[in-house]
Structure formats: structure tokens, C-alpha cells
Design a protein that fits this description.
The structure holds two protein chains of two kinds. By secondary structure, chain A is α/β, with parallel strands linked by helices. Chain A contains eight helices and ten strands. Chain B is mainly α. Chain B is globular, with a radius of gyration of 17 Å. The chains are: A alpha/beta, B mainly alpha. Chain B: Keywords: DNA-binding, Transcription, Transcription regulation.
């Protein structure tokens, strides 16, 4: 279990994450949503052990998370320029040299599923294909946790749909947990079990997506809007 | 193709309805094997946990049966499917009544329209 206890993070004295406590359930796909600047990327980096929290503690199965936790957590960065001088094959070889859990074959199978050529330099690929390659490299790792920062951002609907299907096809939800941040909530909701809303560095709300629909008759987008809409009576739209 | 879901109903129940609909339309026949949970999840673009719930629900409704090691199959019990037809008819009628009530139409005036339609 991945657990945050009173985690805060400051960037040049500016608070980015404020006193977060949360346990990530195992075997779920969890969506992290919130407006730009709400702290999503920072939270993901802190969870992946890439940034050290200013205060508080993050533990993975009871052990403190550090950079070395990378052997249990696969992190997908939101940068587009990602090993741009490598071909897909070289990228996978690099991953294989860095991560014991990486399966070169699986990464190639995912790349094939996503229909992206592994012999072209990443720099020469379209943005959509770079997004596919990043996903293939990440899913090539066999780890209990995947932390994905905006895996669908800036990609067209066809690529987004393919990446979503790749995620379903190549993860084992009984043993793996995926945390992903997204602004494409309407499209991504069908694969989410849980949803976390981050506002100004704090967890504003946390819900089971099917429960929202069942109990509140709302989809995740409606639910999320409720936290931003100024409270006007009888605003029915 | 990934499905479009309506916004106010749980996704699992929309998928249950879809499979029941496919049975009534004859797209799925008695005794047909359903895709595996993962296959169906990829096909519809939803979470594996959701499809698991769909399959569990269908089994609880006796619409499907699981054969150990072989997968999930549509029941071969014709009576159950006959009952499903009746259930779906009722459900449609109830949805219809709710919508006409919301607009203030009476059952009687709608019946006239329905008859003239055919």
C-alpha cells in the first residue's frame, strides 16, 4: 500500500502540497484531477520518489519512498521531449538497463498494439506517436504501481482511445494500481475506479466513480464542476 | 469501438443493459460464449473491475452461467430469456411513463398517438 502521511511540499517557500494524508488502495485505477497549478504533477513526482516532501512521510508497503522506490513504481513523465535521440528500440534497451522489472518483449508488444514504429527516432515521431511510445515504455515495466502524469494530454481522440485500451489490455488490475492525472475526464472516466480532486495543493474530495453515478446520478465531470461552480441557487444547467 | 455512456447511470448497469439488449436482438444467442472479462473491457473501453461487476450481475440474474475453466455463457434456459423480454418491456414502459409524466401528458392521450403511429 502506498501511503501519504501529512505530506507537504514547498517550492521556493511557496506551498504546493499542503498536509496531504491518503492511502492508495491496491488494484484500482485512480484518476487525479484538478485545475492547472493545483499540485497534480508535484504530487506525482513526490509519490514516485523524484521529489522529497518538505514535511511528512510517504511509505510504500511500510518502507519510506525514495528514488530507490523506482523499482516498485513506474513513472510516466508529462514531458513531450523524452529521450528524443533514441529510437523506440533504443529507448526500450535503455529502460531494460535501468529497471530489472522491464520486459523488452512486452514493451514491443505494447508498441505493436498501439501501432507505433520502434525503429524511428522519437524526435522524428509525431506527438501522438511519442505519447504511444512513452506508454509502451512505461507498461513494459512490471511493477505494482504506475504513476502517470497526463498520459493523454495534447493527443487526438484516436490516440487517447488507443492508449486507454492499451492500459486496460496490459495491466493486471488485481495486482497493480494505476494513478493517472488527466484533464480529459469525460473520456477517461470509464476506466477509473476512484477519483481524487486536488485543489490548491489539498485533497478536496475523493469518490468511487460508480457510486457517484449510482447515488448522486452524476458523472465525474458534473461532480467535479460542483466544486468550482459559484453557489447559485437553482442553477440547474 | 469504445462505447458512449449516458451520464446519470452507473457504467456497469449500462453494460448489463447492453448485453441484455444484444440477447433480445439476437446478436447474442442462447448458449453463446461471452468474451473474457479483459476482452470485453478492451472492446468497450472500460475498467476490468467494472466488467467483472457486469458479469457477476448477469450471473446473479441467471442470464449467464460460468463454466469452470471454459468461460461465461448466455444461459440456454429459454424461459429465462422469455422473462427477460417481459422485464425489458416493462422497463421501457416505465421509462416512457416517467418521461410523459414529466411533460404533463396523460397515458390516454399518448395511447392515441401510439396507435396512430402504427
Amino acid at each position: 500500500m502506498l501511503q501519504l502521511s501529512n505530506v507537504s511540499f514547498q517550492y521556493k517557500k511557496k506551498p504546493v502540497l499542503q498536509d496531504l494524508s491518503f492511502s492508495f488502495p491496491i488494484g484500482q485505477i485512480i484518476g487525479l484531477v484538478g485545475e492547472n497549478g493545483s499540485g497534480k504533477s508535484t504530487l506525482m513526482k513526490v509519490l514516485a520518489g523524484l521529489l522529497r516532501p518538505t514535511a511528512g512521510e510517504i511509505t510504500l508497503e511500510g518502507e519510506p519512498v525514495t528514488r530507490r522506490s523506482a523499482d516498485k513504481i513506474a513513472y510516466l513523465p508529462d514531458t513531450d521531449l523524452f529521450f528524443e535521440y533514441y529510437t523506440g528500440e533504443q529507448l526500450f534497451q535503455h529502460y531494460a538497463s535501468q529497471f530489472e522489472d522491464f520486459s523488452y518483449d512486452k514493451a514491443c508488444i505494447v508498441a505493436q498494439f498501439l501501432q507505433v514504429d520502434t525503429r524511428t527516432k522519437l524526435r522524428q515521431l509525431s506527438k501522438g506517436n511519442r505519447g504511444r511510445m512513452k506508454m509502451a515504455a512505461t507498461l513494459g515495466r512490471e511493477v505494482p504501481y504506475y504513476v502517470m502524469d497526463e498520459p493523454f494530454a495534447g493527443l487526438d481522440p484516436i490516440v487517447r482511445e488507443q492508449l486507454i485500451k492499451g492500459l486496460i489490455q496490459f495491466t493486471d488490475i488485481e495486482n497493480q494500481t494505476i494513478l493517472l492525472s488527466t484533464h480529459e475526464l469525460y473520456e477517461v472516466e470509464p476506466i477509473l475506479d476512484q477519483i481524487i480532486l486536488l485543489q490548491a495543493g489539498s485533497i478536496m474530495a475523493y469518490e468511487n466513480v460508480e457510486t457517484l453515478r449510482d447515488v448522486a446520478n452524476k458523472d465525474a465531470v458534473e461532480w467535479m464542476k460542483g466544486f468550482y461552480r459559484p453557489s447559485v441557487k437553482n442553477s440547474d444547467s | 469501438m469504445t462505447m458512449d455512456f449516458s451520464r446519470d447511470k452507473p457504467i456497469y448497469s449500462q453494460l448489463v443493459d447492453r448485453i441484455c439488449g444484444d440477447i433480445l436482438k439476437g446478436k447474442l444467442q442462447l448458449g453463446d460464449r461471452l468474451p473474457s472479462v479483459r476482452e470485453y473491457a478492451v472492446e468497450t473501453g472500460v475498467n476490468v473491475n467494472t466488467v467483472q461487476r457486469v458479469y457477476k450481475e448477469l450471473e446473479a440474474m441467471n442470464i449467464t452461467e460460468t463454466k469452470r475453466g471454459q468461460g461465461t455463457f448466455i444461459t440456454s434456459n429459454e424461459e429465462r430469456i422469455e422473462l427477460l423480454r417481459e422485464e425489458m418491456k416493462n422497463q421501457l414502459a416505465e421509462n416512457f411513463l416517467t418521461s410523459i409524466e414529466a411533460l404533463g401528458f396523460s397515458k390516454e392521450e399518448m395511447l392515441v398517438v401510439l396507435k396512430n403511429k402504427a
